[in-house]
Design goal:
- By secondary structure, this protein is mainly β.
- It contains one helix and eight strands, in the order H-E-E-E-E-E-E-E-E.
- The strands form two sheets. A five-stranded antiparallel β-sheet has the order 6-5-4-7-8, with helices on one face. Strands 2-1-3 form a three-stranded antiparallel β-sheet.
- A hairpin with a 4-residue loop joins strand 5 and strand 6.
- The protein is globular and about 45 Å long.
- The two termini are 20 Å apart.
Length: 135
């Protein structure tokens, strides 16, 4: 699943460092205890700037997906890519790719349990998700 390399910035560096350690990290608001994703310096719920990075379970469920049968380069145009919206057990939703399952609708049931996985790409480790139960 090659693609463009990520470009970490100071605000996202803890996310990418976690991925390199095979950990899924998101931010959590200290006052309201809510996890959130995408990274930002304040809580989107209560506006507090008292936020921290935390390692989450990596458990998720499939909310929505699309199978891209004609991905643009640098992806291999002959290999379908599953682009998905997943909801982490801790609450936030994130865009990702689903791996470890044939990219066919009968293999991608909404609400199916997923688990974070990590793939190596160039100098980076990318978080993706795979079915939590073998299919």
């Amino acid at each position: 699943m090659p693609g463009p390399a990520p470009a970490p910035i100071p605000e996202t560096l803890p996310f990418w460092e976690g991925a390199a350690d095979k950990e899924l990290r998101v931010q959590r608001c200290t006052p309201c205890s809510r996890h959130y994703f995408y990274p930002r310096p304040f809580c989107p719920r209560c506006g507090s700037e008292e936020v921290e990075w935390t390692t989450v379970s990596g458990d998720a469920r499939l909310v929505s997906y699309i199978i891209n049968y004609r991905p643009f380069p640098p992806f291999d145009p002959a290999t379908p890519v599953v682009v998905a919206l997943v909801e982490l057990a801790e609450g936030p939703r994130m865009m990702t790719n689903i791996v470890g399952v044939a990219p066919e609708p009968e293999n991608l049931e909404l609400d199916m349990p997923l688990k974070a996985a990590f793939i190596e790409y160039e100098d980076y480790t990318l978080p993706v998700f795979a079915p939590a139960v073998a299919r």
